[in-house]
Every structure is written in C-alpha cells, then in structure tokens.
Amino acid sequence: MTMIAKGLEGVLFTESKLTFINGAEGVLTHLGIPIQEWAEKSTFEELSLALLDAELPTAEELARFDAELKANRAIPREVEDLIRNMPKGVNPMQALRTAVSYLGLTDAESEDVTPEARRAISIRLIAQFATIIAAINRVQEGQDIVAPRADLTHAGNYLYMLNGKEPTAEQARLFDIALILHADHGMNASTFTAIATSSTISDMYSCIVSAIGALKGPLHGGANEQVMVMLDEVGSPENAVDYITDKLNRKEKIMGVGHRVYKNFDPRSRVLRDYAAHVAGKEGKSNYYQILETIEKTVVDRIGDRGIYPNVDFYSGTVYADLGIKKEYFTPIFALARISGWCASVIEYSKNNRLLRPDAYYIGQKNARYVDLKDRK
Question: Which residues catalyse the reaction (predicted)?
Fold first, then answer.
C-alpha cells in the first residue's frame, strides 16, 4: 500500500544549519544555541544576522549590519502613498502582502537572484517590514505615518513608529525578546512556501509575498489573536475552569494550546510566560494572566498526558497587548519577526537549489472515456 505523508509530516526535503527542534523534549535551538539563551543574551538584530550567515557574527560584523538596517528603515514615498490609499478596514495581512509586492517594484535590484543580491534585499526587507507594518497600522487608525529613527533599536523603533512616542527601555527589550522568539521555527508552512517559490529561481520579493500569504491562514498565523478573543469570552479567572472543561468535553479546540511539532511545552512559551507575568504585575493587568494560568493548569491536568501543552501563541498576545499592539496586528507582528527566518531559509536553500516537485497519489478513474456534453446527465 502506498504511504502518504499527510501534510508532509516527517518528510525530509533538505538540510539546514539554522534551526533544530526536538518536539518530544521541547527543545528549540538556532545554530545549536538554545532559544532561551538567545532570548536572555542576544538581540533580534544579532539573531537575524546569525541566521542570514548561518554563524555567530563578530562585534564588527554586527555593528555593520545594525548600521545597514538603520540606513534602510525608510520606505519609498510610493509605498507610503499606496498604504495611505488602501481601503479602510482592510485585513492587515492583505495590506502587508500588497505593500511588500509593490516595494519590489521600487527596488532596482529586485530581479537579481545572485547570492549577493538576495542578501542585500534581505537586509532591506528586515529593516522595512517594521516601517511598513507600523505605517499600515497608523493609517488605518486615521493617524499620520511616523518616520523611523536611527537612534533606536529595531524593536524600539517599531514601537516608536507605532505609538508616536519613544518606548521605555523595558518595553523595547520586551518586544525585542518577542521578536527573537518568533524569528525562525524550522520548516513551518510559510518558510516552506518561501522556499518552494525560491526553488523556481524566483525573486526574493515573490518568495516573501508567498510566505506572507501562507502566514495569513488561521492555521499558521493568528492563533495569538484568537487567544485574546478567548480571554475576553472567559472574562475572569473564576470562569476559566468551567469554560475550558466545557470546551474539552465538547472536543473543541483551545486556542494557543497544542502544536504540530511540540509534544511537550513549547520552550518559547516558557520564556514568554515569565515576561507576561512580570508585565501583568507591573502594569496592574493581572486578570488576563490569571486566566491564562488557570487555563494552562486545567489543560495540562486534563490532556497534558497526550502531549498537548500551551504553545508560543498562548502568552504572546497578552505581551503584545500590553505594548499597545492591537490584536488585528498580532499576525503582522509575527511576520515582522519571521522575515529574518524566511530570508535566511531562502538564502540557505538557494546554495544547493533543486526545484520542489512532489507527487500526488492518484485515486481517480482510469481508462475513462470522454462523454459528449449533450449526452451527460
């Protein structure tokens, strides 16, 4: 009997030095370094460069990369005008997809698929994703676009462009950690889609637009937004046990719980849980956190033995909300972080490119005859 790997689960199609995941033990590493160490000791800028080059940078290399990011933060006026003319109420991921596609039209190097050009475009994309997403948010809220600053970190600059005021050092660092945790995660759907597009020797902008389209789907991006919807439905910690128990009894999905890869705690959720607790206590917004704690305990007690635990989306929404980010923009924030992983994976695969061309097992009719239209019933 022909074996079919539904959803390509367990199928190996390439080699990578970037990210390793052991779902059974809840392990995630980049370049062999645990995600916990990246979150504690590094920055989004450093991780982005490490992924692009598949090695830890020197201080000089990181300083040069940081300067390049800052020099490329501004987006062309044509892209700003496009964003201003988008319909009110547009889905932010649709807006991002369209803006990035148009950004490619303004880049004279966009059709160049050499390794040097792919890397240069990647740097511009990493820098400009933040500016585009902040601009979309501002315009949709009826506010003026805030120009980027070159004296702030990547994370701090995004919060500045979003809110129109400089964030505190703690807020900037918290968002920096959130970006680190989402920067890359192996062969997820959007990264695979970017690679599939790249395998045809298509341009980098097409690869990234493809990835945005894959991330837009609710089975990939958007779970943290739905967690916030769930928290509002629960209302208070006292209601959490009954709410979750009822969902489990009806075999309904609990948002932010379970993962295709992890059959143990998602290590990223452990990092974010600590920061969510800190923020909740400091800002006096402990209600959401208490609900999440109660839900986590109920889920682990009831179905933890089946390898179902909270994932990174479980706590990320509350962190984003405390930073002034609206839930409709949680998935674009995912893209803001994952752009580094997308670009790095395309660059890595391009070094030993092979056109992706899987097969499907045919289950339709064989030896059928054409029936004239007038004779069909």
Answer: 259, 313
Of 66, 107, 203, 313, the active-site residue reads 313
85 vs 91: CA distance, rounded Å: 14
Which of 230, 323, 237 is CA-nearest to residue 278? 323
Which tens digits make up the pLDDT trace of 278-317?
A: 877 765 557 788 898 899 888 888 888 788 888 888 888 8
**In the sheet where 27-30 sits, what is the strand order?**
19-22, 27-30, 33-34
Distance, CA of 335 to CA of 190 (rounded, Å): 10
- The whole-number pLDDT of residue 343 equals 98
Say how far apart CA 222 and CA 20 lie, in whole Å.
Answer: 23
Q: What is the pLDDT of residues 310-360, one digit of tens each?
A: 888 888 888 888 888 999 999 999 999 999 999 999 999 999 999 999 999
Q: Which of 182, 259, 266, 322 is catalytic?
A: 259
324: left (phi over 0), alpha (psi -120 to 50) or beta: left
Would the pTM count as exceeding 0.70?
yes
DSSP assigned state of 148: P
Rounded (5°) CA angle 39-119-34: 20
Interhelix angle for 267-283 vs 286-303, to 10°? 150
How far is the C-alpha of 66 from the C-alpha of 44, rounded, in Å?
10
Domains and CATH numbers, the chain: 18-218+328-350 (1.10.580.10), 223-322 (1.10.230.10)
Integer Cα distance of 186 and 17 in angstroms: 10
- Residue 53 annotated among the catalytic residues of the structure: no
